[in-house]
């Protein structure tokens, strides 16, 4: 007994020594007022966000928890459930990409629990939705519904995705399926009302577009008939008249047959988007381009009436105030010569400025390309005019000679 008592006394003496030592030496790992939040964030239970990469040396507790989550020896249902929880944690942190990775890993477990699989698909759909991957989100909602047809969240998610994809009829179908399960669900009721509103608006817009398209087609057909009636020849963009043999007469018949009016030939390539049109009185107006090669300048008239002459426009354009690029002040209406290009013969045909536009466009050598007649304007008798015309004539003769030798 004395021995036991003595041992008790020795034990008490040892504890007293330890306590005395503890009083003298401060605990080095204790939390302080300055670092307690930082230290708490290192404890898995209190962490606000998980580190991107888990280093077992720096975060042994987290590594242990992760090994438990991914323990392949556990039942598949438990593994999928753990991965679902992991994905949910990432989702709460708005880390949707990592959430998708976790949910996908859970689905790859191929567990037999339909409820877990439905939730994994639904949650992954939500993550895809927040990343803007609407089609992937919708596919997940469809998959979730297959695992669990009465999963309300999947039905809501499917309807929401269809709304974002502007599939309003499909969105209504998803809502109806959900309301059969929960007739008073506010989200589904609001979603159905919104989908129905957008569906009606889309159908109304489609009807308007169809009516507009029909009207525009009718107007273009009427315009085409008017062009054909006037005997005006159109060329489609990038099209050139076929060259005729010397044995053919010069009445333009073959070219007229080749360059018959076509709707594509009315397409203007001008940046302004101006196009030929008929007004209420049946008068045709053309977008017309004037080219001034001497100064590399242009003028564009968006609506040149077929009944107006070139002189009408030139008088306004070169009247009292001449353009700033005409440094020699020589571009007055009485000094100007107009030409249109013969695309077949690669030559220029002179135009009488007092002639109405329609009569010029009816000329057998005139072909309108890309819906926009164009005319070259030169100063009569100027050195540039003589040189320009001479070069064009030389080029035409040389081209004709080469074709004959070929």
TrEMBL record:
It comes from the Eukaryota. SMART domains: TPR. One of its GO terms (biological process) is protein folding. Residues 196-215 are annotated as: Disordered. Keywords: Repeat, TPR repeat. GO terms for cellular component: cytosol; nucleus. One of its GO terms (molecular function) is Hsp90 protein binding. Residues 279-389 form the Cns1/TTC4 wheel domain. Belongs to the TTC4 family. This is Cns1/TTC4 wheel domain-containing protein. The lineage of its organism: Eukaryota, Metazoa, Chordata, Craniata, Vertebrata.
């Amino acid at each position: 007994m004395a021995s036991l008592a003595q041992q008790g006394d020795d034990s008490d003496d040892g504890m007293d020594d330890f306590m005395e030592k503890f009083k003298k030496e401060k605990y080095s790992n204790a939390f302080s007022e300055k670092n307690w939040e930082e230290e708490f964030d290192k404890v898995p239970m209190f962490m606000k966000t998980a580190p991107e990469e888990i280093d077992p040396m720096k975060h042994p507790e987290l590594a242990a928890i992760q090994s438990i989550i991914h323990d392949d020896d556990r039942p598949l249902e438990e593994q999928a459930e753990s991965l679902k929880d992991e994905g949910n944690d990432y989702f709460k942190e708005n880390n949707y990409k990592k959430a998708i990775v976790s949910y996908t890993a859970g689905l790859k477990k191929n567990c037999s629990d339909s409820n877990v699989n439905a939730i994994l698909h639904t949650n992954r759909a939500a993550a895809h939705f927040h990343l803007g991957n609407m089609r992937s989100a919708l596919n997940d909602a469809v998959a979730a519904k297959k695992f669990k047809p009465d999963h309300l969240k999947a039905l809501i998610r499917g309807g929401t995705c269809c709304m974002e994809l502007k599939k309003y009829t499909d969105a209504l179908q998803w809502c109806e399926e959900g309301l059969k399960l929960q007739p008073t669900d506010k989200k589904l009721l609001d979603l159905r009302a919104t989908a129905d509103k957008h569906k009606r608006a889309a159908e109304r817009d489609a009807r308007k577009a169809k009516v507009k398209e029909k009207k525009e087609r009718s107007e273009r057909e009427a315009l085409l008939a008017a062009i054909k009636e006037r005997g005006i020849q159109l060329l489609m963009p990038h099209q050139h008249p076929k060259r005729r043999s010397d044995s053919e007469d010069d009445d333009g018949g073959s070219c007229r047959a080749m360059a018959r009016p076509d709707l594509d030939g009315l397409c203007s390539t001008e940046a302004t988007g101006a196009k030929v049109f008929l007004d209420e009185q049946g008068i045709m107006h053309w977008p017309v381009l004037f080219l001034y090669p001497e100064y590399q300048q242009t003028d564009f008239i968006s609506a040149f009436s077929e009944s107006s002459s070139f002189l009408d426009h030139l008088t306004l354009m070169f009247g009292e105030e001449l353009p700033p690029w005409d440094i020699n002040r020589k571009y007055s209406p009485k000094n100007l010569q107009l030409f249109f290009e013969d695309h077949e013969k690669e030559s220029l045909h002179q135009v009488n400025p007092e002639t109405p536009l329609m009569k010029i466009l009816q000329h057998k050598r005139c072909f309108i390309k890309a819906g926009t007649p164009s005319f070259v304007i030169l100063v009569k008798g100027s050195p540039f005019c003589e040189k320009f015309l001479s070069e064009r004539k030389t080029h035409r003769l040389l081209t004709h000679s080469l074709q004959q030798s070929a």
